[in-house]
Design goal:
Elements lengths: L2 H20 L6 H13 L3 E4 L6 H11 E2 L2 E5 L6 H5 E8 L2 E8 L6 E5 L6 H4 L3 H6 L1 E4 L2 E4 L5 E6 L12 H4 L4 E4 L5 H11 L11 E2 H13 L4 H12 L10 H6 E3 L3 H17 L7 H6 L1 H5 L4 E2 L1 H5 L4 H11 L15
Parallel strand pairs: 1-9, 1-10, 2-11, 3-6, 6-9
Antiparallel strand pairs: 4-5, 7-8, 12-13
């Protein structure tokens, strides 16, 4: 299949998923686009917002548009790691009793980790191996998770009571962090209309697991021009206060900058943006479009930054204005891959 046809197939599936989700989820267009971008990048997404803004509804609607096994974990302060990954139990059989592994809810393909910061750090860490290695280890035995494997975690703002901040290692496993904001007056009126009528509109299946895996592979084949690659490196290095070119805001308010996973998130997210925009190469604008969701959760603020209530988005916007770029040439779609 030619590159043009494969790119068109990607755009078709992406647009169809956007349409199906919009049947239930009002507004939040950029949030939905960010979630789908993470899905096709093979990453995971963290949705932050106060209760009642539709975060859980978005995830459940996405699962309705994909022919994948959906699993939900409701995080609470008393939740234990075994409640997530599973445990060995005594099983009765004709041959007698023996230990058997009972799988936990992590053995899904679309996993909703609802209110993930309601659980203790010990329980939150149960997701680490699954998110990074796509596997879990119980009692020395290795269990491989079915692909695609996509974790969508929701969390309430850290300043709300009864929450535990996610460890930095856990945050770094998320490709994007998306902020879910309050709806506008028009969106609120539409929400009232849709949720108080007798029957909601149904969501149809758009893609299967193998189709998602094929499109994920296509994303990684999108060429990355050398100048754009260098720009990504400069942008990520600029988030480090001990880096070669930190801004004044970074030196003052940031304790630790982005890890290399931030650069990976920028590149993969930018490749999806290029495909959506009918291009088969990455531009500087594609990188800038995904800079905030890719890096905002990877900046660890200093004491001064936390004391002054600095938003990491302000620091990143300052960097985007200061890190230089060169004009990118847009390449035509090649005849084949």
């Amino acid at each position: 299949m030619l590159a043009e046809e494969r790119a068109e197939q990607f755009r078709s599936v992406f647009s169809a998923l956007m349409r199906e989700i919009s049947k239930t989820v009002v507004g939040h267009t950029e949030i939905v686009r960010g979630v789908l971008t993470c899905l096709f990048c093979g990453g995971h997404v963290l949705l932050e917002g106060v209760p009642g803004l539709g975060k859980t509804l978005l995830v459940k609607t996405l699962s309705g548009g994909l022919d994948l096994h959906f699993s939900r974990i409701q995080f609470t302060p008393d939740l234990m790691p075994a409640d997530i990954i599973g445990t060995n139990i005594v099983v009765e059989s004709p041959g007698g009793r023996h230990f058997g592994f009972q799988r936990g809810p992590i053995f899904g393909q679309i996993v909703l980790a609802d209110e993930v910061n309601r659980a203790t750090p010990k329980t939150q860490s149960a997701l680490l191996e699954a998110m990074q290695e796509l596997s879990v280890t119980v009692s020395g035995k290795h269990h491989v998770l079915e692909r695609p494997f996509f974790v969508l975690a929701t969390q309430n703002p850290i300043e709300m009571e009864g929450t535990y901040p996610l460890p930095e290692a856990q945050l770094d496993r998320f490709l994007f962090k998306l902020k879910v904001l309050y709806p506008s007056a028009g969106d609120l009126a539409e929400i009232i209309e849709r949720t108080t009528k007798p029957q909601a509109e149904s969501v149809h299946k758009v893609a299967t697991g193998p189709e998602v895996e094929t499109l994920k592979a296509l994303v990684r084949e999108v060429p990355l021009p050398q100048p754009v690659k260098e720009y990504v490196s400069q942008l990520v290095l600029a988030t480090r206060p001990d880096g070669p070119t930190p801004s004044e805001m970074v030196k003052r308010f940031v304790r630790y900058g982005s890890s290399p996973r931030g650069a990976q998130a920028l590149v993969l997210g930018a490749k999806v943006c290029a495909l959506i925009d009918s291009r088969f190469n990455v531009s500087f604008d594609d990188v800038r479009a995904v800079a905030l969701p890719s890096l905002r959760h990877r900046l660890i603020l200093s004491f001064e930054g936390e004391a002054e209530g600095v938003d990491p988005d302000q620091i990143l916007e300052d960097l985007l204005a200061k890190v230089p770029t060169q004009p990118a040439k847009t390449a035509l779609l090649p005849e084949g891959l």
